[in-house]
Fold this protein.
Amino acid sequence: MFGMRDEKYGRVDSIIGSQAEVKGDIKSKDTIRIDGKIEGNISVDGDVVLGRESVINGDIAAKNIIIGGKITGNILAGEKVEVIDGGQVMGNIKSPSVTIAEGGIFEGHCEMTGSAKDEIHEIPEKESKKNQV
């Protein structure tokens, strides 16, 4: 199961299944796919893929973030954020590149400036939940 390949997103090192509920922060050095519910912040050196059933209440910091579920929190990506059809973001986004597909929902402030790579290792306290829309 670990180290498997997702047809669309490539190598996935950790998976949180659709029936899982996690309360607390998640940190990982590798790519993670989330299909369940998370109440807490997510900080990943690799990529984060949020499946269509995922529900996140917390901030996410990662290299690339693909959103197919619902997140209520701020997003900080070093390279790219992609909200696919059916994905919902209720919070602020900071990333050099943002794509929102038709059918994707975004409510918040978006800041697209050069690379945010140096900022993705930790979610800054000032950027945490208090800045949510």
User: Anything to note?
Assistant: The longest strand covers residues 75-83.
